Amino acid sequence: MATGWARFAHRFSAYYRSSEFWAPPRMKTREWMFIPFGGAPPIRHKGFSDMQGVRQFLSDRAMHSCFYSTAYWERPFEMKMADKNWLGADLIFDLDGDHLPGVTDKDFPGMLEVIHEQAWSLWNDFLEPEFGFEEKYLQVTFSGHRGFHLHYRDPALFHLDSEARREMVSYIRGEGVDVKGGLARYHDLTSEGWTRRIRDGMSGMVTKLQGIATKNDGYRKELKS
Fold this sequence. Notes:
Mean pLDDT: 84
Distance between the termini: 60 Å
Strand content: 15-25%
Structural class: alpha+beta
Shape: elongated
Order of helices and strands: HEEHEEHEEHEEHHHH
Number of domains: 3
Strand order of the largest sheet: 2-1-3
Oligomer: single chain
Number of strands: 8
Low-confidence stretches: none
């Protein structure tokens, strides 16, 4: 009778043989990695033409975890990265709740509520209205512990290199925003992007300061926020 991790591996193998698998798009061009039971080194540089091949691999040797690459390769099975020939990659936005200030995974429901709001804001305030992203290319997944992953698979954006992706994230984070210029356009109600955010933020700040100055209901709470 199997004991220890071997017992769990046997159960995983039985599950893999009969379960229904979800296939990632363009799977022929993705590299796969597997983590075995028992602390053995990860198995990388695997490529499959269909999910039946993945099922057969997992049935023959049950794995603790399996992963597929967000990048697309001409030859994902090559051992050397230089030989794979990069074709592009999905856009992935990884939102983890416990990376936010004042949020902890000790309050799991509260953490998920906050990160759910952040994920919605990312899509509703930035990706769709400002970058023109379309919902038909979006897949949102639960990370399994701390938050959500937004996978965006528009073929027109696969080619973006790491620098272009960093610029996109920097814009969303507001890095290098021209605050002075935004304030100069404060009364331009047609302005969008960070200029609009600065205008809306100033309006909220003025309202908060007025409440504190007049000591209205809840002003002590405003002082602490």
